[in-house]
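HUMAN: Spend a minute on the protein record below and explain its fold to me.
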Amino acid sequence: MSVPRTIHREAGPKTANFFVITVSTSRYNAKVSGQQYTDESGGDLAESMLRQAGHRVVGRELIKDDLVMIRSLVDSLLLRDDVDVIVLTGGTGLARSDVTIEALRPLFEKELEGFGELFRQVSYQKIGTGVIMTRATAGIAGGKLIVALPGSPDGVKTGLEIILQELPHILYIIRS
């Protein structure tokens, strides 16, 4: 491990404030119509993992697969002082309705291409070539880390395991 990386990791914050967004039209429609729904798409798992790692979840939201709705919510979160990291689960696949990536990319000042590459490499070991259908990515905007993960619990687990290892380093760099 190089000295600067070690120093940055050690100097970076040990805890961060997260906002978790579940992108799911079916669950959103159930919520709006007053039906019972569960967040099987990974939002509950994300919150649990983040809290177990010692981080704070300052908010959660369930929204539908809608480019304007996604971008508007993320834009509003970029203005909040109490949010360091925005995690979105869902909408990263190939379906016509999967627009999370299209909503986020124009907001990125820098994209962390290595995150998506590593995510797919790790996922390949679990699911094989089907991994080519995920567009998981991460980027920096407004001094915050934004992470877009698949909606599956395994995709959320894999993505957060990767991000949480480098989070102090990432936050140290983007705040410098």
Remarks:
- The mean pLDDT is 92.
- The radius of gyration is 16 Å.
